[in-house]
Each structure stands twice: as structure tokens, then as C-alpha cells.
Design goal:
Blueprint (H helix, E strand, L loop, with lengths): L8 E5 L11 H15 L3 E6 L14 E4 L4 H11 L3 E3 L4 H13 L2 H4 L3 E2 L4 H8 L1 H10 L7 E4 L2 H11 L3 E5 L9 E3 L2 H14 L5 E5 L5 E9 L5 E9 L12 E3 L6 H18 L3 E9 L6 E7 L4 H10 L3 H9 L26 E7 L20 E7 L2 H10 L5 H6 L9 H6 L5 H10 L4 H8 L3 H19 L1 H10 L4 H5 L12 E4 L13 E5 L13 E5 L11 H15 L3 E6 L14 E4 L4 H11 L3 E3 L4 H5 L2 H6 L9 H8 L1 H11 L6 E4 L2 H11 L3 E5 L9 E3 L2 H14 L5 E5 L4 E10 L3 E3 L2 E4 L12 E3 L6 H17 L3 E10 L3 E7 L6 H8 L3 H9 L4 H4 L4 E2 L6 E7 L20 E7 L2 H12 L10 E4 L1 H4 L2 H9 L3 E4 L13 E5 L10 H8 L4 E2 L2 H7 L4
Parallel strand pairs: 1-2, 1-4, 2-3, 4-5, 18-21, 19-20, 19-22, 20-21, 28-33, 36-37, 36-38, 38-39
Antiparallel strand pairs: 6-9, 7-8, 7-9, 10-11, 10-13, 11-12, 12-15, 13-14, 15-16, 17-18, 23-26, 24-25, 24-26, 27-28, 27-29, 27-31, 29-30, 30-34, 31-32, 34-35
Helix pairs in contact: 1-10, 1-11, 5-6, 7-8, 15-17, 16-17, 17-18, 20-30, 24-25, 26-27
Length: 1007
């Protein structure tokens, strides 16, 4: 079938800011799809409000609209652009929901816009719980007893009829938002109130719980002719009851017998036939561990997190093929881009095992509820590829970047006195708890009873523990075997004091066809099984270190800078090699670099790759703190760091060297010192005066950073800070109140170029990642801006920065420097898109030896464009009960949105739309605020000016007012959480919640 010739312009809806449940996998899918459509000759118009992603890069689509993802905003763009078609299945749940809204509002019909790929009828049938249930019954697919309800009482009645426990699944939400498992009436009532309010359709499915079954996923493709394949099937290590995004996953499935595998495969294919899917689709099923009986759980009629995982696990680019199917092409006429000889209708085959482990934010938030359930909590994930389950699992574990001592020793990061209770309750630490239980003598049978995890997997974990114990007894005999099953040298050194003999892995290719056909895929993984090395050195190459799993404090912005770095390296005539382990991102698409190594970002792993490739140098500037933390080890082993030297990095990261540098330059810094104990910290705090800022060195996202006001608070926070960065000095600074701002600088080692100064709406003391950033500055005087430029230039020149650096300031009685990050930062994509300069590419060219004259740039501050751009954070508080929702020095946001306009108020309104879900206020609406804010005359004046009605409530009050009558909720109490009744009301009703006074005052100026 030929591709569609009656369409020329296609609009693509993105997924908006990164939130828990909808992350970088949609940047990957969307980028692939846009490029795929352009490849076929179509004009692509992209609509997305996320500035941090490659998807919103100017080279991905013909036209990029960095605008809010609302019905009003998208309708206006469609009216202006008049595309022939719309592709909504690559923007996650946001894209799907918007497509439904546009259709319901008559916009698609009004402008004669054709929907590509999977149709709206299919989307509604798959997403609407009752319709899906009816279809499954019609085609004879078994589903758990369930009922669709629109009221709490109906849910209670049905649960009484079928018996507890029941699962609540709200319609049209992502990441299990609003859902959960209820064991009794009280729990069901609470979940239902939240679930109904969070479902756009005010609808929930109440389902008989099948928790404990095996959870299996099939990633399937179907074309316009009805031809279909399974790209990959995956099996959750965790049983049904834990969201698949929070589960450890293996590909391909490991415990199904052939009958079960074929039955579930056929069921998946039958389901996508019945739904008339056109493109990619994810089918989730539950297999009874004690019989051949199974249930269908749900279908995602779009690309998903599992699609990204399946693409990276197999090498088969699902989103790219799905986009081509959407424009009329079919599997039998599309070449497999990996082999280039077989066709896309050829099902991938794996001769290795893939393990995915989710990355949770609980290392940052130790008060958060760590229990896992049907509502997703992970911020990202890592993937390990190996020849065995053990090897892939341990490689994934090494990639996690959590408590390194706990990983190396395979033990929980916190003391677990009651192992049986810990095993029974699933948390992020459960894998390590199982290792501890096995060492403590628990039998596999007992662990299976407590966890309901399949014995097969538990036997593999028992094998790992046995290997660990054998290593402790006899290193020489067991070293080679341990390496084969995934132990790295750090793990081996954790159980023995003997010197390690050392050995190198071989590298195998990911080729989609298990080596059956010739392939030249530049996509490799290491293994200690086998002797043939399939990776040959490229020569004339540069190694780029990625940033690992997405987490709060290190997000998709570093994937953006990594990809731009690679492109600049290639444009300069070198081969670019990426090392990374994140299956969600664009940088781990094998078509991006000249060679991709999907490996843990550990020193051992990177050194082995460097030993084989012999690169001209290594670039660490674009991989966040992950890459920076590897620098000293790489240099110690003889590798050349390109860009700012190790000495320059240490000048900014080491407190004493940094202090000496600023003194030498006569630059002001808040008074302070470093401490490695509470006694020393107390002396420093007493000398410089409270309040003080406490923060560890060499951490990201403000982890364990806090403002403390007295000795008692200092003792509490110092414990967290020392745990966050063991053996690293703790910084104790006097807290200076003032206007915070920051710059990203570019330098060729001599001159300094500053793209712009960003001013924060929130004052000092709130992490820059949680602050709203405004460009160009609205409150800084010309003299203050000149001082900032002067200081930034002096620092860049004296550190001998080559490439890129981020500098943060407080403007108070004078200009103070808070910190310098000797690398790219989260603001780089934002400033790149606003100034229309590819800053990471420019920085890479400088790293490779270019100067500003050659790049056509004049050192100094760039003249700002005639616009206002605002970057606003987005929070996932509903997914993390227990964490403090008050803004503080510790970063909490998971992503960001952008607003661009000719004036400040309009730009702010746009930025707040997709971040705080604030669409402006209407006269007469209520502002619910706590007594502290109600006593603030400035706040009351702004509320009156906005013609709103203040209603004073305590934080533990449940408001008795309809959600549509409330413009916003404001609560700035220090120790508030998402579970506080006032906050819970706001979050569960999708009402904007403001937890910092400065943010509130800014929002009140938006009409």
C-alpha cells in the first residue's frame, strides 16, 4: 500500500513536561516519529511545552510551537497552521486526551483534520474501561470481574458484591494516577474520591484484585493491512499489584512455558486486531502462576514507556515504524533499519537477556511513602544487557546511582530488623532485602510465600548470593565465574581484601536477529561469556559520557546536551561514541552516535570501553554530575579529558579551592566553611550566625540541602547531609536573602560568552530547579547585570573553562556567588531555544579547539531578543505521598514547561498552564490560604487586586467548597506534605497548589 498522498502537513502533539508516569520515553518516541515523517517528505508541525527535550529542537520538526497543551492553545495553532492530519499517539496520555478533546469540541471536523494511526474510536474503546470490558467479552478474552462507576457509593456496593481486595483504575490517566488497591471500605472510599476527581471522564473501573499473578507485557505492531508482529514480550519480576513502571522487568519473558507464551502472544494479536490498532500498542496480561488461566489487564493504544524499553532491548525502532504505518506504509514494505536487509515484518529475536530496574527518588526524600502499588512512583529507569539473567540484573543494579556501598554489598540501604515484614511489603529496596534474607538463611520457598515472586527468579538471586559467599571464601577459584554472572570489581572488592586479578569483557552486538543475518548496528553490550569481540575500534573517536537514569535533579536536559554534543563531534569530522544506560532517551538510540555502548556508568565499565576504543579524549561536560564524578578516576587512569581540566573542575567543586579562587578574584561569597562532623559544623554556624545553608559537596539536585535556624535543626540535617555524601565535606554557609539569578557561560579558555542572565521569581533558599526562571531579567538593574557579567567572565577565565559552565548568584546588598557547576545545566535547552543558539553544540566546538571568532560570536553578554521567556517547574506530588511539598533548597520538581510571549504577564501565564495547571483566575473565585499567608498584607492586597475572595483555612482543614469555585490553594508551611488535607484537596481536584509566597504573588498577577 502506498503512503498517503492526500496529506502534506502533519501536526504532532507532544507529552508536555516530564512527570512521574510520563517521562523521556515520549521525547524519544516523538523525536523518532517526527524525523520519520520528515524522511517521508511530510511537513511536520510539533506542539509541546517542554523546553528540555530534543523533541522540541528546531531540527526535529519543520515548525515547533513551544505552547501550552490545552484545548484553547492547540486549537489556535491548528487554526493557524491548517494541517491535513494530526498524530496524537506519540505524546503519551497528554496527547491522547487532547486528541479526544479536540474531536469532542469539533475542531478536527471544523478544519478537516484527519487523525493518523490508531483512530479515536479505538482510543476511546481502549481507554474507556467499560467499552474495553465489553470488547474483551465479545472476542472471548478473559478479564477480572469489574464494573465502571461514576460515584463512590457504586464502587462500595460492587466491592461488597465481589469481595475485597479490589483495584481502582481511573479512566484516561497516566502512570496509574489516582488508582490503587483497596483492602476495605475505608481505603476504597479514599481512593475513589481521588480517582474520580483525577479522571477526565470522572470514571473509575473497580476490578477484582488479581494481585500475585505474573504480569506479562507484549509490545505489538499492526499495520494498515492487518499484518502484525510482537516486537518483544516482557515479564515483570514483581507480581501483579505493582505498577509495571515500578517493577523490575526482564525481556524476553523467562518463566512462561511454550503454551503460555503462545497463548498470551495470540491473545495480544487478537486484541489489537479487534481494536483495529494501526501502529504500536502495549498489551498487559496476568498469568495465573498455578494454572494456564490468564486475564487481560489493559491496553495502551499508543507508544509507552514499555515501547521505549522494547525498542532499546531489541534494537527495533517502534516509534519510527509506527509513524510510517500512520501515513499508510506497511510492515512488509518497510526495511528493518538495523539489518537493512530484512523487513519490519520480521519479528526480533534476542540472544541475550535484558533487565530493567526503576529509579526511585526515595534517596532524596526519606519521608516519602516507599510502599509500591498500582500508582507509579519511579522517576526513571536503567537497563542492563547480559548473557544471563544474573549478568543483566547486576549490570542494571550497578547503573542505579544510589547508595554505592549498598549496591556493592547487595544489602538494603537502611537497616532492616524485620526481614519477613520487609519482604511482605514491596518497596524500592525489595531486591536488596531479598539478597539480605537469602544471606540470613531464608529459604527460596519462604521468600516466595512472602513476596509471590516466581521461584525461578528467586533461584537466580540465590545463585548470586552463593557466588558472593564463594568469592569471600576463595577469590582465585571463583573470580572468573563471578565476572561471568555480572559481578564488577567493586562488588567483588566489597567481600574480599585480596588483590583482584582483573579481566576484560568482550562486546556483543544488538542486531534484532540473534546473529542470524548480517548487521552493522553500532550498538553493543559487554559480557564475560564468550571470547569473540564483535566491536572493533572506530579510530579518530571521542567518548561522550551520558547521564544515566532520569531522576529529580538530573533529567532529560542532559540527554539533550549529550545528543547535541555528539552531533557537533560528528560535524567536526570525528567519530562520536556514547556510553549510557537509560532506555528512555534519545541518546541511547543507536542511530544517534557512531557507536553506542549500553553499559553502567562506572569507572570500571568506562575504562574497559576506553581500553578497546582508544579515543582521542573523553567529554564529561554534558552528562550531569554522573559524568563529572567519573573525571578524577578517568584522569588517574591516563585518559584525556577534553574541555575544562580536572584542576578547573576541582576549583569549582572543592569548597576550599573555590573559596580561594573567589578571594583571589575579589568576588563576594556568603560567609562559611566546611565540616565533616556535627561538632565542627556547630562551631562554624555559631561563628557566621544563623540561619545557615547546609549542603554536601559533589551531589546533584540540592540533595540533603537545607536552611537551618538553630542547633537542633543543624544536628538533624547534618545527619542527612553526611549520609548523602559520605567522606565528602559538608558546606555550611550563612544564608543570604536576596534575588537569585544564574548564567550559563561559554568559554574557549580565553574569552567568555554569556547567552543571557536568568532571574528567579522565588528568592534565595529555593533550589534553582524549583524556581521559575525569567529571561531577560525584569528586576535587575543595569549595574547589577554588568556586575554579574564581569564576575562570570573573571571566573570563566581564571578556571580556564573550555566549553560550558553554570554560575549562580544572589543579588542582595551586593552580588554574591553561590556556586559554580563546571558542566552543562538544566537551563541549557531553555536558553538554547529562546536565543536560537545551539549552546551545547557551540560548547562542543569550543572543546574541540574552535574559538569565538571562528564561530561568529562576540564575547560578552548577548543582546536579548525582544520577548520574555519563562521556565516553570512541574511537580509530581500526587505520586509521592509523604514528601514535603514546601519549596526549599532540596529540588523536588520532575520537569518544566516554557512560556514565551511579548510581555511578562502573558509569558508567565503560559508557563504556569502546564506546570502548575494554573489557567488564570476569574473574579469572585476563592483563594484558599493558611493563616500565615492571611496575616501577610502584601498577599491580601494582591488577592484583592485580582478580585478574588480569600478564605483562611488551616493546613489540616478539608475545604467545604466546590473545586470550580477555587482559583488556587496556597500553603507555605515548612513541614507540609501532599497528604495534608488542604494540599490533598488541591492535588486530588487538580487545583493549582502554590507552596512558596513568591510564586503565589507572581501567579496572582496572571489574568
Amino acid at each position: 500500500m502506498p503512503k498517503l498522498t492526500n496529506i502534506h502537513k502533519i501536526a504532532v502533539i507532544g507529552s508536555g513536561p516530564i512527570v512521574i508516569g510520563q517521562a523521556a520515553e515520549f521525547d524519544y518516541a516523538g523525536s523518532q516519529a517526527c524525523l520519520s515523517l520528515k524522511e517521508e517528505g511530510y511537513q511536520v508541525v510539533l506542539i509541546n511545552s517542554n523546553p528540555a527535550t530534543i523533541m522540541t529542537d528546531d531540527e526535529i520538526a519543520d515548525k515547533v510551537y513551544l505552547e501550552p497543551l490545552t484545548l484553547e492553545s492547540v486549537s489556535a495553532i491548528l487554526a493557524k497552521e491548517r494541517p491535513d492530519a494530526l498524530l496524537p499517539t506519540l505524546g503519551g496520555q497528554t496527547g491522547l486526551n487532547l486528541a479526544v478533546e479536540l474531536d469532542d469540541a469539533g475542531i478536527l471536523a471544523k478544519y478537516n483534520i484527519q487523525l493518523l494511526g490508531t483512530g479515536l474510536a479505538t482510543i476511546k474503546q481502549a481507554e474507556d474501561r467499560e467499552s474495553f470490558k465489553e470488547l474483551m467479552q465479545k472476542i472471548g478474552q478473559p478479564i477480572p470481574a469489574s464494573k465502571t462507576v461514576h460515584a463512590v457509593q457504586a464502587a462500595l456496593d460492587f466491592a461488597h458484591e465481589i469481595g475485597y481486595p479490589v483495584i481502582v483504575r481511573p479512566a484516561y490517566t497516566l502512570g496509574g494516577t489516582g488508582g490503587g488497591i483497596a483492602a476495605n471500605t475505608a481505603e476504597l472510599q479514599k481512593i475513589m474520591v481521588r480517582g474520580l476527581s483525577m479522571s477526565p471522564a470522572n470514571e473509575c473501573l473497580i476490578e477484582k484484585s488479581i494481585a500475585g499473578f505474573k504480569e506479562i507485557e507484549y509490545e505489538v505492531m499492526r499495520d494498515n493491512l492487518g499484518d502484525k508482529i510482537t516486537v518483544c514480550n516482557m515479564e515483570n519480576f514483581d507480581p501483579v499489584g505493582i505498577h509495571t513502571g515500578d517493577s523490575i522487568v526482564f525481556a524476553p519473558s523467562q518463566t512462561l512455558n511454550d503454551t503460555e507464551y503462545q497463548t498470551l502472544r495470540q491473545a495480544s494479536l487478537d486484541i489489537i486486531d479487534a481494536l483495529d490498532i494501526k501502529g504500536g500498542c502495549n498489551v498487559q496480561l496476568a498469568q495465573d502462576p498455578n494454572s494456564e488461566h490468564y486475564y487481560v489487564i489493559e491496553v495502551n493504544p499508543r507508544v509507552s514507556r514499555s515501547s521505549a524499553l522494547a525498542s532499546k532491548a531489541t534494537g527495533y525502532p517502534i516509534a519510527k515504524i509506527a509513524a510510517k504505518i500512520a501515513v499508510g506504509l506497511n510492515l512488509s514494505e518497510l526495511r528493518n533499519p538495523v539489518t537493512k536487509t530484512t523487513y519490519a515484518a520480521f519479528e526480533p529475536a534476542l540472544d541475550y537477556v535484558v533487565a530493567k530496574i526503576p529509579r526511585f527518588p526515595f534517596d532524596k526524600f526519606n519521608t516519602a511513602e516507599r510502599k509500591l502499588g498500582t500508582q507509579m512512583k519511579a522517576t526513571g529507569e536503567v537497563m542492563g544487557i547480559g548473557s544471563t539473567i544474573e549478568e543483566s540484573l547486576l549490570k542494571a543494579l550497578q547503573s542505579m546511582e544510589i547508595d554505592q556501598a549498598a549496591i556493592n554489598q547487595l544489602k538494603p540501604s537502611t537497616v532492616t530488623p524485620d526481614l519477613a515484614a520487609a519482604l511482605h511489603t514491596s518497596t524500592d529496596d525489595r531486591l536488596l532485602v531479598i539478597f539480605a534474607a537469602l544471606r540470613a538463611g531464608y529459604s527460596v520457598d519462604k521468600i516466595q510465600t512472602l513476596t509471590q515472586i516466581d521461584r525461578f527468579f528467586l533461584d537466580k538471586l540465590a545463585h548470586i548470593v552463593t557466588l558472593q559467599q564463594q568469592l569471600a571464601q576463595d577469590l582465585t577459584t571463583n573470580y572468573a565465574t563471578a565476572k561471568k554472572f555480572g559481578f564488577n570489581d567493586a562488588m567483588i572488592s566489597a567481600v574480599t581484601t585480596e588483590p583482584l586479578p582483573g579481566s576484560a569483557p568482550v562486546y556483543k552486538m544488538v542486531d534484532t536477529c540473534a546473529g542470524e543475518f548480517a548487521s552493522s548496528t553500532p550498538y553493543f553490550y559487554s559480557t564475560y561469556f564468550g571470547s569473540e569481540n564483535e566491536s572493533q575500534p572506530l579510530g579518530n573517536s571521542i567518548l561522550v559520557i551520558g547521564s544515566g537514569p532520569i531522576r529529580i535533579g538530573q533529567g532529560v536536559e542532559f540527554d539533550y546536551t549529550t545528543v547535541h554534543c555528539v552531533q557537533a563531534i560528528q560535524q567536526a569530522g570525528y567519530h562520536a561514541i556514547i556510553v549510557n544506560n537509560n532506555p528512555e532517551t534519545v541518546s541511547t538510540d543507536f542511530s544517534i552516535s557512531d557507536k553506542l555502548y549500553f553499559e553502567p556508568l562506572t569507572l570500571e565499565s568506562v575504562l574497559h570501553i576506553a581500553e578497546l576504543e582508544q579515543p582521542l579524549g573523553v567529554i564529561v561536560q554534558f552528562g550531569g554530575q554522573t559524568a563529572i564524578n567519573l573525571t578524577a578516576g578517568l584522569v588517574a587512569n591516563g585518559l584525556k579529558i577534553l574541555g575544562t581540566s580536572l584542576h578547573g573542575i576541582e576549583q569549582t567543586e572543592d569548597r576550599h579551592q573555590f573559596e580561594a579562587l573567589l578571594q583571589h578574584l575579589n568576588v563576594k561569597q556568603p560567609a562559611g566553611n566546611t565540616a565533616t562532623s556535627l561538632a565542627a559544623a556547630s562551631k562554624i554556624a555559631a561563628k557566621i550566625g544563623y540561619p545557615v545553608m547546609v549542603r554536601p559537596s559533589f551531589v546533584l539536585g540540592g540533595r540533603a540541602m537545607a536552611i537551618v535556624h538553630d542547633k537542633t535543626e543543624l544536628a538533624h540535617y547534618l545527619t542527612n547531609a553526611l549520609h548523602a555524601a559520605p567522606e565528602q565535606p559538608i558546606l555550611i554557609d550563612h544564608y543570604v536573602q536576596g534575588l537569585e539569578c544564574e548564567v550559563d557561560i561559554l568559554s574557549d579558555g580565553h574569552d567568555v560568552f554569556i547567552p543571557g542572565i536568568m532571574e528567579h521569581i522565588e528568592g534565595a533558599g529555593i533550589h534553582s530547579g524549583d524556581s521559575i526562571a525569567v529571561y531577560p531579567p525584569q528586576r535587575l538593574t543595569a549595574a547589577q547585570q554588568a556586575e554579574i557579567v564581569s564576575i562570570a567572565t573573571k571566573i570563566g577565565q581564571n578556571v580556564h573553562c573550555i566549553g560550558m559552565m553554570n554560575i549562580q548568584f544572589i543579588v542582595a546588598d551586593q552580588v554574591y556567588v553561590i556556586e559554580v557547576n563546571p558542566r552543562a545545566s538544566r537551563t541549557v535547552p531553555f536558553m538554547s531555544k529562546v536565543t536560537k543558539l545551539h549552546l551545547a553544540k557551540i560548547a562542543t566546538r569550543l572543546i574541540l579547539g574552535a574559538n569565538f571568532a571562528e564561530l561568529g560570536l562576540t564575547p560578552g553578554l548577548l543582546t536579548p531578543p525582544n520577548l520574555v521567556a519563562i521556565k516553570a517547574p512541574v511537580f509530581s506530588f500526587t505520586k509521592l505521598p509523604g514528601i514535603s511539598t514546601a519549596l526549599s533548597p532540596e529540588m523536588k520538581s520532575t520537569g518544566e514547561s516554557i512560556g514565551i510571549a511579548n510581555d511578562y504577564a502573558t509569558a508567565l501565564g503560559k508557563a504556569l498552564t502546564d506546570s502548575y495547571h494554573f489557567h488564570g483566575s476569574h473574579a469572585g473565585q476563592f483563594v484558599l490560604l493558611t493563616p500565615t499567608l492571611a496575616a501577610d498584607t502584601t498577599v491580601l492586597q494582591e488577592i484583592a487586586h485580582a478580585q478574588l475572595v480569600p478564605q483562611v483555612l488551616t493546613a489540616d482543614t478539608v475545604p467545604e467548597v466546590a473545586a470550580e469555585q477555587v482559583a488556587l490553594v496556597a500553603n507555605t508551611n515548612d513541614h507540609q506534605t501532599a497528604a495534608d488535607p488542604l494540599n490533598y484537596f488541591a492535588l486530588s481536584q487538580n487545583i493549582p497548589l502554590f507552596t512558596a509566597k513568591d510564586t503565589l504573588l507572581a501567579a496572582l498577577t496572571v489574568n
